[in-house]
Amino acid sequence: MKIGFIGLGAIGAPMAHNLVAADFDVVVWNRTADKCAPLVEAGATQAASPAECAACDVLITMLADDGALAAIVHEHGLIEAMGDHTVHVNMATVSVECARTMAALHAEAGKIYMAAPVLGRPDIAKAAKLQIVAAGAPDAIETARAALETMGAKVWPVGDEPFRANVIKLATNFMLMAAVESMGEAAAMTAKYGIEPDDFLEIITSSVFAAPAYQGYAPAMTKREYDNPEGFKLRLGAKDVDLALAAARAENVPMPMGATVRERLSAAVAAGDGDLDLSAIAEVSRRQAHLDDD
After folding, report:
1. Residue 169 is a catalytic residue
2. Domain 167-288 sits in which CATH superfamily?
3. 25-83: per-residue pLDDT in tens?
4. CATH code for the domain defined by 2-161
5. Model-level pTM greater than 0.85?
6. Distance (Å, rounded) from C-alpha 231 to C-alpha 120?
7. 253 by DSSP, 3-state: which?
8. Of 51, 66, 102, 159, which is most buried with the most CB atoms under 10 A?
């Protein structure tokens, strides 16, 4: 199977590496070309353009946001470059509106499109243990399944309409942001009573909240060290909450907790923490509780 892979960011790069390691014929492209070098060294082929990646069986795009995906599709004629049987698997976190637009553009051109956003941090991607939520025609999912199962621990089919997978991804990320924010607030509250964060966080992540959503972010909060190159950047979390709130507004679904979490993320970004790990949201609670005042 020949796989085209566009987008070698913090999660995309290890995903592509796992495909190469599994002996797929992988062709890669990234806007910052030097990010292709480690994959080429591992056995991939570097494409001269995104369109070259589209001449394949499965085309995977793992881009940062709606704008990046639209730019690749429109500026490089990606849909037109696809083969008649190529399956375009969009694995990025995009808005519901973008997901619907992409599905319509592919359908108008007679090309195959599906969505398969991933649940997991870069370290989970490296370990090939991502949870992959897939939506699209059953035949398309089956064509892509071997590649998806190479990159993830489980593939979750959720229907024929691609946007359904994106809705689930946005809802999941909203829940993640809310969980990390609540943990930061609770750690600040206990710290005010002289209970060290490592004591509190070890207890909760080993008992009532012994789950990846908490365990993955507690260590950084404990050490107050948030500069993690393999972490989930806080500014991307803010972007995802914006997308979730937009999806909710479109269907008149109240999400008051989402609005609160977005305010906290905005405060963290305003403080210069946007490129830090998501767990840095805990610093907003610490600052507002005056924990570090002299």
Report:
1. yes
2. N-(1-d-carboxylethyl)-l-norvaline Dehydrogenase; domain 2 (1.10.1040.10)
3. 999 999 999 999 999 999 999 999 999 999 999 999 999 999 999 999 999 999 999 99
4. 3.40.50.720
5. yes
6. 10
7. coil
8. 102
